[in-house]
Design brief:
Elements lengths: L3 E3 L9 H18 L23 H18 L16 H25 L7 H17 L8 E3 L5 H7 L14 H23 L4 H21 L1 H11 L1 H14 L8 H25 L8 H13 L14 H23 L4 H21 L22 E2 L2 E2 L4 E3 L2 E3 L1 H24 L2 H11 L1 H6 L4 H27 L17 H11 L5 H16 L7 H15 L8 H7 L9 H5 L11
Helix pairs in contact: 1-2, 1-4, 2-3, 2-7, 3-4, 3-7, 6-9, 8-9, 10-14, 10-17, 10-18, 10-19, 11-12, 11-13, 11-17, 12-17, 14-17, 15-17, 18-19
Protein name: Branched-chain amino acid ABC transporter permease
InterPro entries: ABC_transp_permease, LivM-like
Subcellular location: Cell membrane
Length: 594
């Protein structure tokens, strides 16, 4: 098979010089419009009636316009801006322009729909919309960063998709160690600000705009090569990067004046911790577990029953450290008991059995009410009135002043869950790079071959199942005290409120199986979106399914993928060495089956 390289022309036949100038002018026009009024009434959230001071969605549009303008000016080779595009030069401009038009168009549409027509738009909104359209159309006239290599002439769609691709950045100039460490600190500081802004969005329109501009901006940064440069620096200073990440996470409660959004952050940490535990089972060992949320429930119910609440059937109160150990131990026992007879199954059969276990757990705790069975869990009423934790005299239910900042009750639980996440991350990273971790990967890739090489497949899978159950149990012990009650409906297979088994599995797949940061990002997105867009609750599962379909089509390896997954899901089918190399040798490398 002979491959051809097509020198692709721009999507639109516009001279490159004129296209770049028009893109910069359009971005500048939209940027200037954010300082004008976009509507005449303050009924639209964010008060877009003020001239001279951007507010609400205008701030997000301002960020998109500034990013588009900076990437465009970087293409001119202006000194001081060339570092912005070490990879692609023009694809980041197009992506930033797409995000700019998406945010601007959504704002104009939202104002028109909520206020009753385009008559409610002020000239500033029209100026911003026209500028965003000019920026996007002109950016399509910029040259491509990469040529298309294919066996046929590219279609218009292939030409457009290729215009969004970019080459990998070259080797950067060596920087002093202090400068690289400063870059790491600045990057995590910016990351903290972006995440905090998203969690603190006060109304759905602002959160939708946040998703649009953040999605396109992050993709543009990847195409520009900045994220690859940052990844290389964080790999070089891994310990400093990990410490900076957790310090940035620990700073979050100090940025909040109330507990309203801290509760969202606590639940995100619980969701992410459980998803990371599931990542051991699914991402490393390759076991499809559809009832994983039951282990979270085991830990939560265990902690609730030994918390000293009057609703407990046992009437005992363990200190927190003891309840964590008991919850983890009971979850471990359940993992072994369920895994021992079922892990000899593979694939869909194992998935069906684990799905059955999850449903059996929910039904069982609903029947242990003293009528249908022994009185243990109070049946559908659950275990209410779980007291706040008191750890060595530190009451988690009261506010405390630390470094001059008052931290509320949920801020206390946030810090506790952050410590639990550090433990889970440490366990995951150590286990993944250990001998047992390599055995998990071997089982995941080909269990028959791994068994033939001497790996005890059943034993290895049982360890993964038990370890994942233990980590979920630890998270469950904290969840019981955060929610102050546990009921069977919290641990269903699929439902509108995470965590549930379907959303946990989706968080692992969306973020990237086998990685640490992937499930954390996936869990954050899957929790924040339903929490912020509650008006779409009736269509949540529909949107959830469409998102997974699009993900499987365009990025099956997940948002954050390891190198193995990238090679597996993006195999080109081409020879591993250039044709010129083969032509000059008497022996060459060929594909298997060629």
């Amino acid at each position: 098979m002979t491959t051809k390289t097509h020198q692709t022309t721009p999507v639109l036949p516009i001279p490159a010089t004129a296209a770049r100038a028009a893109t910069a002018a359009g971005a500048a026009l939209t940027l200037g419009s954010t300082f004008l009024a976009w509507t005449w009434t303050a009924k639209f959230p964010g008060d877009l009636t003020v001239t001279g001071y951007p507010g609400g969605l205008q701030v997000l549009t301002l960020v998109g316009a500034a990013l588009t303008l900076l990437f465009t000016l970087s293409g001119y080779g202006i000194k001081g801006l060339r570092w912005l595009t070490p990879g692609g030069t023009n694809s980041p401009v197009r992506l930033a322009a797409l995000g700019l038009l998406g945010t601007m168009g959504f704002t104009v549409g939202a104002i028109s729909v909520e206020l009753g027509g385009v008559v409610n738009l002020e000239p500033g909104a029209w100026i911003g919309l026209v500028g965003a359209i000019i920026a996007l159309v002109a950016s399509l006239g910029l040259p491509h960063d990469q040529d298309i290599t294919d066996t046929t002439s590219p279609s218009p769609l292939e030409t457009f998709l290729n215009s969004l691709r970019a080459p990998a950045p070259g080797r950067p100039k060596e920087l002093p160690s202090w400068a690289e460490i400063l870059i790491i600190v600045a990057a995590f500081g910016i990351g903290l600000f972006v995440v905090t802004y998203g969690i603190d969005t006060a109304y759905p329109e602002l959160f939708v705009g946040y998703l649009i501009i953040t999605g396109f901006a992050v993709t543009a940064l990847f195409k520009a090569g900045l994220m690859a440069r940052l990844s290389a620096i964080t790999t070089k200073y891994r310990s400093i990067a990990v410490a900076a990440a957790f310090v940035a996470a620990a700073v979050f409660p100090f940025t909040q004046s109330t507990d309203q959004y801290t509760l969202i952050a606590v639940n995100i940490l619980i969701f992410a911790t459980v998803a990371l535990g599931l990542n051991i089972v699914v991402g490393l060992a390759g076991l499809l577990d559809l009832g994983y949320v039951a282990f979270l429930g085991v830990g939560a119910y265990t902690a609730a029953l030994v918390s000293g609440t009057s609703a407990s059937a046992f009437g005992v109160q363990f200190p927190f450290w003891a309840s964590v150990l008991v919850g983890a131990a009971v979850s471990l026992i359940f993992g072994v008991v369920i895994g021992a007879p079922t892990l000899r199954l593979r694939g869909d059969y194992l998935a069906i059995v684990t799905l059955g276990f999850g449903e059996i757990f929910r039904i069982a705790v609903g029947n242990l009410d003293g009528v249908s069975g022994p009185r243990v869990t109070n049946g559908p009423n659950g275990v209410p009135n779980i007291p706040d934790l008191n750890f060595f005299g530190y009451d988690f239910g009261e506010s405390h002043t630390i470094l001059g900042f008052e931290l509320g009750a949920y801020a206390n639980y946030y810090m506790l869950m952050l410590l639990a996440m550090i433990l889970v991350v440490l366990v995951f990273s150590r286990a993944g790079s250990s001998r047992i971790g390599r055995a998990w990967v071997a089982i995941r890739e080909d269990e028959t071959a791994a068994t033939a090489m001497g790996i005890n497949g059943f034993r290895v899978k049982l360890i993964a199942f038990a370890l994942g159950a233990t980590l979920a149990g630890i998270a469950g012990t904290v969840q019981a005290h955060v929610q102050s009650t546990v009921v069977p409906e919290m641990y269903v297979f699929a439902g509108p409120v995470p965590p549930n088994s379907a959303f946990l599995l989706a968080a692992v797949i969306l973020g990237g199986m086998g990685t640490i940061s992937g499930p954390l990002i996936g869990a954050a997105l899957l929790y924040m979106i339903p929490a912020k867009l509650q008006f779409l609750s009736d269509y949540q599962l529909l949107g959830f399914g469409l998102a997974l379909i699009l993900l499987m089509r365009f990025r099956p390896e997940g948002l954050i993928a390891n190198r193995r997954a990238k090679l597996e899901y993006h195999e080109t089918g081409q020879l591993d060495v250039p044709d010129e190399t083969l032509a000059g040798t008497t022996s060459g490398t060929t594909k298997a089956g060629a």
